[in-house]
Amino acid sequence: MSDPVQLKHIEQPPPLAEGTRLDAIQVGFRSWGRLDEEGANAVLVCPALTGDSDLSSWWPELLGPGRALDPEKDFIVSVDVLGGSGQTTGPTHPGPDGQPWEGRFPSVTVRDMVLVQGLLLETLGVKRLKLVIGGSLGGMQALEWAVAPALPVAAAVAIAAPARQSAWARALNHIQRRALEHHDDLELARMVAMLSYRHWDNLDSRFAASDALPHPAEQWLEHHGSALKARFDPVAYQRLMAAMDSHDIGRGRGDLNTLLANTPTPVQVIGINSDLLYPPRDQAELAEALPQARLDLLDVPQGHDAFLIEQAQVNDLVLDFRRWPQRPEQPTLKVCF
Hints:
Elements: E1 6-11, E2 24-32, E3 42-46, H1 55-58, E4 75-79, H2 110-123, E5 129-135, H3 137-147, E6 156-159, H4 167-183, H5 186-197, H6 200-207, H7 216-231, H8 234-245, H9 256-261, E7 267-272, H10 280-289, E8 292-298, H11 306-309, H12 311-323, E9 332-336
Parallel strand pairs: 3-4, 3-5, 5-6, 6-7, 7-8, 8-9
Antiparallel strand pairs: 1-2, 2-4
Helix pairs in contact: 2-3, 4-5, 4-8, 5-7
């Protein structure tokens, strides 16, 4: 169902958030459906940390006729993030001297990712977004679109994502950085991350009864570590972790609560009751601060990664939100637990 990856080249883009200039940016993306004549039926899907533009491979139960992301109604676009390991410019791509950027690749922020998405959408003829949606790092991008849209945005869905990076999540990322900087060990970094993506009850229910050696929980970690090493660039991993650590939608925009209170975009905020990385209290606080928010909670055991695992439930929640009547003149918070 997925279209092949498409490429756009943007010459002389604006400077990145920290002032760095790239002479050109290649943007890798995939799309489903057709853009309408008004350029107003586009839906942007923002990938998570190690995700890519191949939405059909990691969120297949949300994509299709009658589902939350319906190519018969929507022009759906998913973009490889700037600085990542996909087809958008990043550490594995050639620098100005023709050699791969590798460790010379500059720092990027979530705002830079959104900047590139906006530039791409303009080249595609998009005038207005019906929806922006993403989970985790993707949810951070969706929140950026909601508070400071590069194009008009009708609605946003932010799943398992905070308004700004927490000290807890940053500390977990620091351990991963140490594994990479001191030991060049992406596998170990991924194992640390996996423990933050799942809940202990989930692992105990799956593996605790086993007496096998090596233990199935250890094998599970080894599998995820080696799988990521085979497909993801370690420098890109560091750049994207740093982008998450710098995430703060209020930075440079005044008081965070004032910013959120003045955000007119209707936002569905989805939390996960078992999320150890971004606990549901983060989403509750975010939804409380937004004037047009709907708060939903996934009551599932898997932890942070549940938005990728319990896809049918996520699909139902997003479908319901897209049918939810929005009345900006009557701010409301709908809580669905």
